[in-house]
Records
---
Amino acid sequence: MKKNSIYQLFSHIPTLETPRLTLRGMRVSDAEDMFAYAQHEPVTRFLTWTPHPNIKHTKEYLTYVGQRYRTGDFFDWAVVCKKDSRMIGTCGFTSFNFSSDSAEIGYVINPDYQGQGLATEAVQEVIRFGFENLSLHRIEAKFMQENTRSRRLMERVGMQFEGYARESMKIKGEYRTIGRCGILKREWEEAR
């Protein structure tokens, strides 16, 4: 899929549905739900961003996301639990390599909702969307070496571990070893 087509599609980010989740665009009205998890250091320990210091910061971030949606260059969904209509995290594409028809995904889930398979459900839906709707050839995800839970999730959705790049990213002032998992469209189709 071409860059312009992706940007056009995400300028009106589509809503995705799974049995227990709705994936939709983030809204400023999600600020309290996002701040509930984004303020905690353990949540951001293995992420590139630091905890939100206050709800004002969260609202400003969500305002910024809204601006990026309008230009079509933001590819992350709010993950909303149907059971209680709360935004419980985010999941989506962090980047695209348009010349290679590939993308990287990322995700974060409120700890109160972890251990229920909800992150797996969201990631599976984003992978499905990437292969079926965006005609991607490959989808990958990265994780910090110590984040074994994230690696297990990636493997659970059919991604294969491809190795570590030693101290390849400087995150929060520290060089971190980054693992990579990936799945090809044909592997995803065969697993279905």
---
Amino acid sequence: MGRECSVCGKGRTFGKKVSFSKRNSPRSWAPNLRKVRVIEDGTPKRILICTSCLSRQNLDR
């Protein structure tokens, strides 16, 4: 499962880093994740949520 958003499932993406001389080398982009406490089924729980989902949701911090 790894580190991904609990709401939208956004995870690490992969691509190429291209230098000025057009040489390609692999690289990856990680989502901007935050640990947030939410109350789920009456119990407090910590989840990882990306900042775009955090601003979109109405969650108390």
---
Amino acid sequence: MNDVKGELLSVGIDLGTSTTQIILSKLRLENSAGAFAVPRVEIVDKEVVYRSPVYFTPLISDTRLDGAKIREIVEREYEAAGVKPEMLQTGAVIITGETARKENAREVLDALAGLAGDFVVATAGPDLESVLAARGAGADKLSEQERCCLLHYDIGGGTSNLALFDRGKLLSTGCLDVGGRLVKVENGVVAYVSEKVRQGFPELTVGSPAAKEKLQDVADAMAEALLEAGGLKPPGRWLEHFITHKTAELTVKPACFSFSGGVADCIWSPRSDDFAYGDMGPILGKTIRRRFEEEGARLLQGGETIRATVVGAGSHATELSGSTIFYQGVSFPLKNLPVVRLDSMDGLSDAIARGLALFSEEGSADPVCFSLRGKENPSYEELCALAGEIAAGAKPLTDRGEALVVAVETDMAKALGQRLAAEIPGGKILCVDAIHAAQGSYMDVMAPACRGTVLPVVIKTLAFETKEGVR
């Protein structure tokens, strides 16, 4: 089995606050284990094979996306690339920044997910966006090459997503309401001011002259928040004001900083026209660079700037499970399985029953994914006990003929799946390994690849702004 190889065609669609982009990537798979070892198929190469032009995200109003025009863009770019939805095997449609807060964001995203093919997921959420943008920009590789702790900022039109890496390892993520399109300008007049900016600068109103001095004050406040988030200045009022999700926990102080996103283009290549894009992006970009250099920060430029998130969505959203997988009676793909995280092995069956109840109506039991750490080298007795506990807790699910899905981080999925099959004769069972899935996330599992030896898996978050808040 050591000659197992394969290839997946992956799509990335990024609906950002300012721009919409599409890429296609080829993900090459190969067994990295030795001839006499347990097969371990990994993604060994990611090649972007098509990049769309950068479009301004179509809007009907400040609160609604133009779903029809967005769909037209995707269909046009598919035709230009010579692909059809059914040719796509994995990827992500990711909705980011302020776009995720539009009134019809979920409807537009669901429609695009269908257009993008059965194997492609729709996803949003600042944690995942931070990771995808940073990896798409190559920040993880920069941190590894420089052997340093690096804080990456992906600064778009509506938000700034932070990812902290130490020698290539992700430590934490964060998000601030800092972006170049939070103030829009038309014909020298302020045309739009976001609620967060309006709260901090009430004198900046729609219809007022777009005086550079006023926007410079806003840009300085935003840059101050970024400095404070990066530990270059003590936490203060602007970090507290612009924080939207959480800031990256600086367990290790960053030695260098990198940037991506639309505003990053203005950091590395300043524009002479302060309102070149009809917003405050060029002013913000120049201000960020000046303020960081004044603090003596070491700045690094990654391989991607404005395309970082879409490259991440197309090339870094998929994980592979395949060292010791087990599946029987399962129809693929499995989509949007809510994750129930089991952090303790004590009282496991009761914890599974409680988790199952969170996502089931009375009298029903809907499919979920049970996620747990697992054991490195379990004894046969431990394996039997674990399978018995899981089977007992999941009985309402399996009694209805639904699939029992378990994700473990250690390489024990095959043995655990075999024991579960003994506990649940004829049951639909899927056990995947090498997958960490947190509570509140969702999991998609695509059809087996590489002669059935691996399962492509996408862990995602879904977060949209509602009247009650984020869900």
